[in-house]
Amino acid sequence: MKEKNKDLIIAGNWKMNKTPKEAEKLINKLKTKNKNSACKIVLCVPFIDIPLATDLTQNTLISIGAQNCYFKKNGAYTGEISAEMLKEIGVEYVIIGHSERRIYFNETDEQINKKINSALNSGLKVIFCIGENLQERENNITEEKLIIQIKNALHKVDKSQIENIIIAYEPVWAIGSGKTPNKDELDHICQIIRNTVFNMGKILPEKISVLYGGSINSKNAKEILTLPNVDGGLIGGASLDIEEFLKIINCTAK
Ligand code: PEP
User: Fold this and answer.
1) Which residues line ligand 1 (CB under 6 A)?
2) How crowded is residue 254: how many other Cβ atoms within 10 Å of its Cβ?
3) Residue with the nearest Cα to atom 3 of ligand 1?
4) Where are the domains of the chain?
5) 75 CA distance to ligand 1 centroid (A)?
């Protein structure tokens, strides 16, 4: 179960949306309209929006995240961006292992593990995504799948670094589909995720942050975000609409 009094995390994953001009408008509206200081807001924006986003959110409760990084520090890797580069321009978080990167860019557990280690060693916090696809769900191998993803990703991660990893449970079939797991099922899975990390001897279950992501909107947010084992949400589509995003943030008011 989550730690009592820990602030919930609401992270927006903008994916490949919002030009710098559009990003500026959205962030300014969020800054003026958000009255809830009881939740941690993270905006995971496209690389091109990062400098502007970090400037606009200085001295606010909003943190900026990237959506990917490469595991090498530097070198001849055309088109890639390292964790160290992100850190230097004020990024605090990075999403690693999102299912869209696994599916469209063939990212493997091994690469994800290297990226996690590189991000942590550069001082970034990691939002590490895991989740089963529809076929795995229908074959009742969800738990096995998640446990394998966690074990592969946390390989060689130092115990002292685990608190800098947030695990986002994102069933692939729920992303952008309007479907979500039922609340008992979801809470149970988030507990299994906590226990898996605990059983690896890494960290107390309540110290681990577990987010849910997949079709969260202003209507279902409260039910999901108040589950005992859910520490917040990773929000895709609904984070692009400021009014919808604000309603989700407001569901976390204490
Ligand atoms: C995501 O892709 O991280 C996500 C949660 O998307 P959506 O909220 O649109 O389902």
Assistant:
1) 13, 170, 175-176, 213-216, 234-238
2) 9
3) 236
4) 8-250
5) 32
